[in-house]
TrEMBL record:
Similarity field: Belongs to the CDP-alcohol phosphatidyltransferase class-I family.
Cellular compartment(s): Membrane
Enzyme Commission number: 2.7.8.5
Listed name of the protein: CDP-diacylglycerol--glycerol-3-phosphate 3-phosphatidyltransferase
Pathway in which this enzyme or protein is active: Phospholipid metabolism; phosphatidylglycerol biosynthesis; phosphatidylglycerol from CDP-diacylglycerol: step 1/2; Lipid metabolism
Reaction equation(s) it catalyzes: a CDP-1,2-diacyl-sn-glycerol + sn-glycerol 3-phosphate = a 1,2-diacyl-sn-glycero-3-phospho-(1'-sn-glycero-3'-phosphate) + CMP + H(+)
Bilayer topology: Multi-pass membrane protein
Organism of this sequence: Limimaricola soesokkakensis
Amino acid sequence: MTWTLPNILTVLRLFAAPGVAVMFLFFIRPWADWFALVLFVTAAVTDFVDGYLARAWKQESKFGAMLDPIADKAMVIIALLVITGFSGMNPWILLPATLILFREVFVSGLREFLGSKAGLLKVTKLAKWKTTAQMVAIAVLFSTGAFEHYFVMESIGMDETMVDSILSGGTPDEVGLVWKYWGMIISWWTGIVLLWLAAILTLMTGWDYFSKALPFLRDAPQPDPSERHAP
C-alpha cells in the first residue's frame, strides 16, 4: 500500500469513528457533545476531500476503495449508537437508526457472500446521497444534545412557571434561555427529519443492492431424475 494523502485521510477518518464515543468517556456534557460534533464533522469533510484528491491526483487505490466505505459505516454506526444512548432510546431515533444498522449489516453480508462478484454492488449516486443525509442528520443531532444541556443548566433553580414565562416573553430573558430552547427544538426536529430521510434512502439502496445480487442467490436447478438416460 502507498501512503498517499487520500489514503492517510481515510485511515484518520476510520480512527475518528471510535473517537466520537470516547469523547463522552473523558468529557462532561455539553463539552462532550461539542467535541464529538467537531470531530464528526471534520471526519465527514475528509470523506469528500480524500475522494476528490484521489481522483484529481490520480491516486485511486484498491486499499482506499476498500477502506473508504468501511470508515463511513464505522462513523455512522458508532455515532448512531451514541445518539441513541443519550436520547434515552427515543423511538423517533431508535427506529430509523435500527433500519440503517440493519441495512449496513445486510449489505456487508451480501458483499461477503458474493466474494469476487461483489463488484456488482458498486457505490451508486443514491448511496452517496444516503451517506450525506446520514452524516448531516447525525451532526445536527449532536448539536441538539449541546443545546439541551445549555438549556437545562441555565434553567436550574427555575420552576416550570418561570421557564414558561421567560419563553413566552412575560419575563426578561437574562440568560439567553429562549435561543437555547429554540436551538434545541429546531435542531431536534431537523435532525429527526433528516435521519428518517436517510433511513428511507438507506432502505432504497439496500433493495437496489439486493436486486442486483438476487441472480447469484438462486440455487442452480437440479436435473429431473426421470429425464436421466441409462448408460
